[in-house]
Write a structure and sequence with these properties.
This protein is mainly alpha-helical. It contains 8 helices and 4 strands.
């Protein structure tokens, strides 16, 4: 099969990366499994082997209740949109129009499903959507951040709330996926 055009590969990498980074933030925080510690009594440096997952990530406890944080800064429906972006990324690599439409399906589900969920929650059916939360967030990814609804420091806050090794592993995975398809 023919290699996709360069522009399609770049678009695919961007969408796949965003989708995988969003999905990776749900998993426990990754950490380097070996650390070096200095014994405070002897001054000797020791290697310490630890779990590659940090189940005691304290960042979630630092927020005040009612504030928007993490993936909710990007969209109210991060699970839907992460798979939507992954589908969009695959659609860029597809060789036929029917396959492109097929791979855009998860993005359509994210958009329509997120809007439907929001409308149900506004009516009190199956959940709630408090007005203060709704005015700070959006179904459409990044819309609330770009429109200034979360303040001028929202990008810095999002960066601080991101699990960096999870994101890096996702970027490596999406890069390898695209390089495999571009050959």
């Amino acid at each position: 099969s023919a290699s996709p055009p360069m522009l399609a590969s770049i678009g695919s990498w961007m969408c796949l990366s965003l989708g995988l980074v969003m999905a990776s933030q749900v998993a426990p925080k990754l950490q380097i499994p070996v650390s070096m510690n200095t014994n405070r009594y002897s001054g000797a440096t020791q290697f310490q082997v630890r779990c590659p997952f940090d189940f005691s990530d304290k960042r979630a406890e630092e927020q005040s209740s009612g504030s928007v944080r993490g993936l909710e800064r990007i969209t109210r429906h991060p699970g839907l949109w992460s798979f939507g972006f992954i589908g969009m990324g695959q659609s860029f690599l597809s060789s036929t129009v029917p396959l492109r439409i097929w791979w855009m399906g998860p993005a359509a589900v994210a958009w329509l499903g997120g809007s439907h969920t929001d409308s149900r929650f506004r009516r009190g059916l199956g959940g709630t959507l408090p007005p203060e939360y709704e005015c700070q967030t959006s179904n459409i990814p990044f819309l609330a951040m770009l429109s200034g609804k979360q303040g001028s420091d929202c990008w810095e806050s999002l960066w601080k709330e991101t699990k960096p090794l999870n994101a890096a592993a996702s970027l490596v995975l999406s890069t390898l996926w695209i390089l495999r398809k571009v050959r």
